[in-house]
Design brief:
Blueprint: H1 8-16, H2 21-32, E1 55-57, E2 63-67, H3 68-78, H4 84-87, E3 89-91, E4 94-98, H5 99-108, E5 113-118, H6 129-133, H7 137-142, H8 144-154, H9 176-195, E6 205-210, H10 214-224, H11 228-237, E7 244-249, E8 252-253, E9 255-256, E10 279-280, H12 287-290, H13 292-300, E11 305-310, H14 320-329, E12 333-339, E13 348-352, E14 358-362, H15 369-377, E15 383-392, H16 393-396, H17 403-406, E16 409-416, E17 419-426, E18 439-443, H18 445-448, H19 455-462, H20 471-492, E19 497-499, E20 502-504
Helix pairs in contact: 5-14, 9-11, 19-20
Length: 508
């Protein structure tokens, strides 16, 4: 199919809604040609135990052992600038690193590491009343006034520039994006203090926005760049307050329902109206295509490792200990997982197929909620994907051209008021099933996974309820633990201080 084959009215509408039709038509040609048919989808069979050899328990003090000769080689290859024997404990031909040593090693790796965020989501479903009420009708009504006030401010904005937390006095806190920018400056400061070297070229950052959020995020950057909350610390370090590489994800178009057979075409009968389509996101899994120029540019700058995570996870910060473990392991990629709680209903879990192959199965598209609950009922604790990955760019680079065709493509039929059509999307974390040697960090949720998929999660973490009974009691217990994690993160990772009933960034 060519662009000229499409009705001008349909073209005009879809382009106005952010669809890159040339890219969309290439996708359809590839789909109809069977280029996605060679995907090896891992079928979930069970969940792995915590003592699985690929899982590294980060809920306890970390320790890592390796042959001393291998450590010397790895330190030299990565340019760590330290003698393994000087930071570790040598016993015979083996060197052991405790958590403090791993932290030091990780900080010395900051010049070889980038930090990326998926920043394309809007706050429409995030602040949707019906979806938020699903957590608990009673808790929703209890916080209804707070919810309505915050929802009105969030709607129509990219989620990344909405409040990441709520102050004790009920006022909105800093945005997710502003906190991330401050956190990066805090780690640059840590690098300078630890190594005595200039910090300006360490931890370069990047993001994937969407065609619908990019302009608003760009406007936020123009505002943030002058803020004293960032500029005070950046000036002290002699660095710009914001340095961010950006690529933008365009929208996909709905395609014809499977009942219409092949070849698939762009759906053009939305709402029963002729030559009207539907623009929709194609999933964060497209990052490997969209961000490929950035990944390759980072590698050309000497960057070896790159984090990727969701903007709405306050727990997603630079972690030097996990960075050191991953860098020393020589593995292809590492992912963070936390024990699932009743609040973790949207996202993926770590599963294995009958052969033992591990992957992430998204609840809904890849595994049912009933199956997840059945695992837990059978006494099999479920590790919930935190949406944080750490990649070795030397190994990722050679796969970038093929990943769009290898990553599972979920084409799901829809039957809605707007008609019968299909949606195609890819999920980032299903890359796990394509890797030969992934590793997983089992982390403390309250330290590394304070995600806000829905506004009620943000509210309950910031202002935890008490005295609840029944189903809400379990949610209240989780909220209390997450609130402790939130206050710890705000003070440590983000450098905030408590001023009365508000958390503020000190004006350095």
């Amino acid at each position: 199919m060519k662009l000229a084959d499409l009705n001008p009215k349909l073209v005009s509408q879809l382009v106005a809604e952010g669809v890159d039709l040339e890219r969309m038509l290439r996708f359809l040609d590839d789909l109809n040609a069977g280029k996605y048919d060679r995907q090896a989808v891992v079928e979930p069979d069970t969940v792995p135990p915590i003592d699985h050899p690929a899982i590294f328990d980060r809920t306890v003090p970390a320790a890592y052992r390796m042959p001393l000769g291998k450590a010397v080689e790895r330190f030299a290859e990565l340019g760590v600038g330290l003698d393994p024997a000087s930071v570790g404990f040598v016993s015979g031909e083996t060197v052991s690193f405790d958590e403090a040593a791993l932290r030091t090693i990780g900080i010395h790796l900051y010049p070889r590491t980038a930090y990326g965020v998926l920043n394309g989501g809007s706050a429409s479903s995030y602040a949707d009343t019906k979806k938020n009420r699903e957590y608990s009708d009673g808790l929703f009504e209890r916080y209804r006034d707070v919810f309505d006030r915050l929802a009105a401010d969030c709607k129509g904005k990219p989620k990344g520039i909405t409040p990441a937390f709520i102050n004790p006095d009920g006022t909105p806190g800093y945005s997710f994006l502003l906190l991330k920018l401050r956190m990066l400056l805090e780690h640059r400061k840590l690098y300078a203090e630890t190594t005595g070297k200039a910090a300006c070229r360490v931890l370069p950052s990047f993001q994937m926005t969407s065609v619908h959020t990019d302009a608003a995020i760009g406007e936020a950057f123009r505002e943030y760049v002058t803020l004293k909350e960032l500029k005070g610390l950046s000036d002290a370090l002699g660095c710009p307050s914001i340095e961010m590489f950006t690529e933008t994800q365009t929208m996909m178009a709905a395609i014809t329902h499977s009942a219409e057979g092949k070849p698939r075409r762009i759906f053009d009968r939305a709402g029963g109206k002729e030559n009207v389509g539907i623009a929709m996101p194609g999933g964060h899994g497209q990052n490997f295509e969209i961000l490929a120029p950035i990944y390759r540019h980072m590698r050309s700058l000497g960057i070896r490792f790159a984090w990727l995570g969701n903007i709405d996870n306050i727990g997603y910060t630079v972690d030097p200990v996990s960075l050191a473990i991953f860098a020393l392991s020589g593995r292809e990629a590492a992912f963070e997982e936390a024990w699932r709680t009743p609040m973790d209903v949207k996202g993926g879990i770590l599963v294995s197929d009958r052969s033992g192959k591990l992957t992430c199965a998204d609840i809904g598209p890849a595994i049912s909620t009933e199956d997840v609950l059945a695992f837990e009922k059978a006494g099999k604790p479920v590790l919930f994907n935190c949406g944080v990955g750490l990649f070795d760019l030397d190994r990722l680079d050679g796969r970038l051209d093929d990943l769009p065709y290898q990553l599972p493509l979920r084409v799901t039929d829809q039957d809605k008021d707007s008609g019968r059509y299909a949606q195609a999307e890819q999920i980032t974390w299903e890359i796990i099933g394509l890797l030969d040697d992934p590793m997983f960090f089992a982390v403390d949720k309250s330290k590394r996974f304070l995600a806000a998929k829905m506004l009620m999660e943000n509210i309950l973490t910031s202002i935890p309820p008490s005295g609840e009974t029944g189903e809400a009691e379990g949610q209240a217990t989780v909220s209390a633990a997450l609130h402790e994690g939130l206050t710890r993160l705000l003070a440590s990772e983000y450098g905030l201080v408590r001023a009365g009933d508000r958390w503020v960034i000190p004006l350095d």
